[in-house]
Structures are given as structure tokens and as C-alpha cells.
Amino acid sequence: MARPGASYPQVEPGAAAMMDARVAPCARACRVGTALETARRTGAQVLVLGHHRAVRRSEVERACRWGLTGLAVSAFAWERLPVVSAGAPEVRARRLLLSGAPMILVRERRRVVGVIDARATALARPAPSIAHRLERLEARPGDASLWLLRVAGKVGEGLGTPVFAVGGFVRDLLLHRSPPDVDLVVEGDGVALARQLREEVGGRLIIHRGFGTASIEGAAGPGGATLGRIDIASARREQYEAPGALPVVSAATIDEDLRRRDFSINALAVALGPSTFGRLLDPLGGQADLARRRLRVLHPMSFVEDPTRIFRAARYATRLGFRLDADAARALRLALRVSDYRALSGQRLIAELELLVAERQGWRALESLVRWGALRLWDPGYRAAASSRRRLRAAGRLSDWARRRGIALDPVEVALIALLVDQRGPVVARCLARLARSGEPFRRLNAAATAGPLARRLEGTGGRRPSEIAEALRAWPVQVLVGAWLHGGRRARRHIEWFLHRGRQVAPRLSGDDLVELGVPRGPAVGACLAALTRLRLDGRARTERQEREFVRAWRPGGGPRAPHTKARGGST
After folding, report:
1. Which residues make beta-bridge pairs with 294?
2. Which of 390, 264, 239, 235 is nearest to 327 (CA)?
3. Are 194 and 214 in contact (CB under 8 A)?
4. Which of 165, 258, 489, 570 has its CA 20 to 30 A from that of 105?
């Protein structure tokens, strides 16, 4: 029993009281299979690889399940971990965890005697309010985002399920950028909340039963203000059964949901409940990474479990002006070493390419992928040539040129051709097969990537008539023309641009019926005569309908007459 007026010493438990002593040393060069045997033999939950490096047993077990037993365990160990003495104050350890440290090594003298794991430590995390930033949304004309967030929070409260705005919406809000469409996460039944929310905001409800998610499109706010697409999901954890596989999901807390994401800058959430509205959840230091303008992965095997995150990294780095930090660069190198992603479908890879090309600076993002060597995911034999980035810039200019002139070029196909034109033929074929291109699309893209001979022929067409140029190009699909343009020099590009913009549009003023009325026999003769008229128009030797009629009256199947005497006009320069 405490005595009044007596003083009692305050006991500081220190870092040792927080640590897990189940650790064991492991050589950096130790292979995964051997490391797992060590962990099982010693009962260790964490293997220590010298100073400032460690790996969890669960991570070694996962690498074994994925068949990566020959990999050195140091390849996916956590690096630059903070180290404290066993007698260090507990508050110091907690501050390190709050700053984003995944683990802290505890040392006595020169030996690591334990580890403090952030995943196993209860922390009272600060939750600053950013309600003032949310309220600024109301000042933007026609933006009903704030109204939507408040309605979602109230609906969630009525259902007894906390609701959060997450990911890119929060990230862009903190960066003072216009937030994208709203993503909501529910600690509970996301589909149930979506049904109720739709009753409040209107629009069309789309339920994705296979994923336990839902979307609302065409919703409207007060005064008819339009809302973008609203995506609603239940908070979940993910488990990857193989590198690149789609994850197996299960219900989780919002904290677990944030920890399964791609980058720390996307592991952010804002509470929307009426009593907690605007509180920021940042368990992994995303706000600090926004300030440092860096992309940081959440664990060393992030790109191995989902290689499509590499393509997202290129998108975010280009869009936001960020860079990969040292951990992300190391995770990228590891993912490219693994290289065998049989569970990753070609359709998912193409989908990522489509998202990249749709970016305002998508061509720069593609340059980043080439610079990182990331396209070895398509085929291990893919090698970036010295000209690869130059070709990509040229492809971007071609796409812009075509768009301004209303010429239909598929930007994804243009990007794909540009990425393959410098590769060897077998690599091109394997990449296209990996990307699930088959049949006619495969043949056209393969021919486009290997269209160097056509480009060289066009370079040697000085002095030839426009009709001859058109005849040389008309038989080729537009994809092959794109490939030849990328392979070619100035003359070849000028000819192809002329053909795409003008040459292929040229047609006679007279129709087939007109030709029959003028005495041309029905059948192949009509087509032959129309082709002859087209050549005359291309070369500027039949500019008017009268000149065409004169030509047809004198034309005979098997050999037309001399063309009308009008001054020739070039068309391809």
C-alpha cells in the first residue's frame, strides 16, 4: 500500500521488455532452404544477417513455397534496420516504429539478442486531422466530393461499419493535386455499404462478386453536381500463392488493408465517420515519403509477389515527379532476377501497358521501364538498345502527329511496336506470345517490329511517283507502316506520313456505276479502271471529273490509253 508523501522510483522497462528473443544468426550467402532449416532448428522467428539486416521466418517460408529455395536469403532481407541497446528507453523504440521502421534489432554488447517487430507491437499512432484540406474541396465549382465523403461516413455509421477514403484520393489531396475518383474501404461488408450509399447518391450500382467490391457510376451531388466513379471495397488482407498470381483475399482491419498495398504513398486513409471525420491514418510513413518525393515499397519482395507494381511505379514516378528509393530499386532488381512469373497473365501485362500509355506523360514512363530493364518480365532475352529511348520519343511524336490529324492509330500498339523494333526476331515473337497476342494481331505486330526491310526500300524511292509510293504501301497493315516509320530515316517517314494523311484517302470522283454507264464492262474491268483513275489522281494527272471521264471513254481493259496532258504534281514530299 502506497504511503502518503513517500517517493517511489519510476521503473523504465527499456527496449528489452518489448523484444522477441527468438532470433538466430544467419550468413548472408545462406540459401533459402538452408535458412529455413536454421529457423526451424533454433525456433527463431527472425534471422539476423550481420549488422542492420534481418529477415522474418515467415518471409523465408513464403520464398520456399514459391520455389525460390536457391535464392540467397540476403536478396530479400530488410536492410538498414535501426539498432538499439537492450537498455535503451522504450519510448525511443516506439518512436522508431512510428517513423516506419519494420523491425528494430536489440543488441547487448556486440550481439543481437532480440528484435522488436512492428507487426507484433501495439502502437498508439497519432491521427492528425486533415479535415481542413477536405473542406477546401467544397470551394471547387461543381465538386461534390466533400458531400459524398460525409454521406458515406454517415451511411457507414448507420450500418456500424467504419468507412475510409483511401489510396490515390488521399495521396493527391496531401500533394495539393486534384484528387481522382473516390476509393472507399469499409471495415465490414463493402457491398452492403455500396447498396445503401447508392440509395443516397443515385447512379448505377455495379457489383463485382468475385472480388467482394462494388462501384457506383453516374452519381450526383447537391444541385446536380456530378460525381466520378466511386469504388467501394471491404478491408482485406492478401496472400499470394505464387509470384505474380492474383491474391487470395480475406477480411481484415483498415491497418492490415493499408499494409498490403503497393507503395507507402498509397498506404494512406482518412476516416469518414461523423465523430472521426478527417483523421489521417498513416501507419507506414507515407506522408514523409510524399515530402521526400520518393516511391518506397512496403517489403523487399513486393515486386516479386506482384510484378505489375513495377509498371505502376513507372506511372507514379512520371506523373508525380518521384523517384524509386534504394529499397524499391533493390526490390526491382530482385524481381527481375526471379523472372519466372507463370501465374502472371499476358492480359494483365497488356492492361498495365494500356494504363501507362493513357498517362499524360506515358511515353516518359515507358522510357523509365526501359531504363530499369523491366521489360525482361516479357522475356529474359529482352535487351534495351542504345536507340530504344530515342525510338520511344519518336513513337510519342508519331502518336501526337496522328491524333492532331484525326488518323486512327492505336497508342498501345504504337508503344508495343516501339518497344520491340530494336529486339531480335525470336525475342519479338516470344514477347508477343507472352503478352497473349495470337493469330492476326500477332502476325501484324511481329511484321511491324521487323519492318526494317520495308523502311530501307522506301529510303531508296527518290524520284518515284506518288502512285508508286502508294502502291508500295497500300498492301501493308497500318501497324507495319508504324514499324517501318520507326525503322526508317527522313525520306521513309515522309512517304509514310504522306500516305497515312493523304495518299490512302485518294479515290476517283467517279463511281463504279459511273464507269459502267461510260461503257466499262462489269466485273474485274471496273476495279482495274478505278485503280488506274486512282493512280492518275495521286500523280496529279486527273484533277477534275471531266478529265476522269475523258480517260474512261478512251480506256480499254488490259491497257489504258495515255493519260490526259496535265502538269504532274508530286504528293509525297
Report:
1. 323
2. 264
3. yes
4. 258
Distances from the Cα of 432 to the Cα of 212, 344, 460, angstroms: 33, 14, 30
**Which distant-in-sequence residues (6+ apart) come within 8 Å of 490 by Cβ?**
none
The Cα 439–Cα 284 span in angstroms is 46
The answer to whether 334 and 77 are in contact (CB under 8 A) is no
Give, in order, the Cα–Cα distances in Å from 389 to each of 367, 408, 493: 6, 24, 18
Contact 450, 442 (CB under 8 A): no
CB 147 within 8 A of CB 139: no
d(C-alpha 198, C-alpha 205), whole Å: 7
Helix (H) or strand (E) segment spanning residue 413: helix 411-420
End-to-end, the C-alpha distance of the chain in Å comes to 102
- The Cβ of residue 357 has, within 10 Å, a number of other Cβ atoms equal to 21
Q: For residues 166 and 185, what is the distance between their CA atoms, to the nearest angstrom?
A: 7
Phi-psi region of 384 (alpha: psi -120 to 50; beta: other; left: phi over 0): beta
Give φ, ψ of 116 to 5 degrees: -110, 110
**338 vs 240: CA distance, rounded Å:** 15
Q: What is the dihedral of CA 285, 268, 297, 294, to 10 degrees?
A: -70
Q: What is the dihedral of CA 207, 208, 212, 215, to 10 degrees?
A: -50
Phi–psi pair at 425, nearest 5 degrees = -50, -50
Give the DSSP letter string of 371-400: HHTGGGGT-TT----TTHHHHHHHHHHHHH
Q: How far is CA 413 from CA 301, 442, 478, in A?
A: 31, 11, 10
> 10 Å Cβ neighbour count for 72?
17
* Residue 519 φ/ψ region, left for φ over 0, alpha for ψ in the -120 to 50 degree band, beta for the rest: left
Q: How many C-beta neighbours within 10 Å does residue 517 have?
A: 11
DSSP class of residue 422 equals: T
The answer to whether 483 and 505 have CB atoms below 8 angstroms apart is no
Amino acid at 81: L
Burial class of residue 209 (count of CB atoms within 10 Å of its CB; 0-12, 13-18, 19+):
exposed
C-alpha cell at 54: 534481418
Grid cell at residue 87: 537498455
Contact 481, 496 (CB under 8 A): yes
Grid coordinates in use for 69? Answer: 529455395
CA torsion sign for 493, 496, 501, 506 is positive
The neighbouring-strand residues paired with 281 are: 269
- Please list the rounded mean pLDDT of every run of 10 residues in the chain (573 residues): 59 83 95 96 95 94 93 95 94 90 92 93 85 84 86 96 95 88 93 94 89 89 84 94 93 94 96 96 93 96 97 96 96 92 95 94 94 95 89 94 94 96 96 96 96 92 85 94 96 95 93 92 92 93 92 75 44 43
Confidence (pTM): 0.89
* C-alpha neighbours within 13 Å on the C-beta side of residue 285: 18
C-alpha neighbours within 13 Å on the C-beta side of residue 102: 19
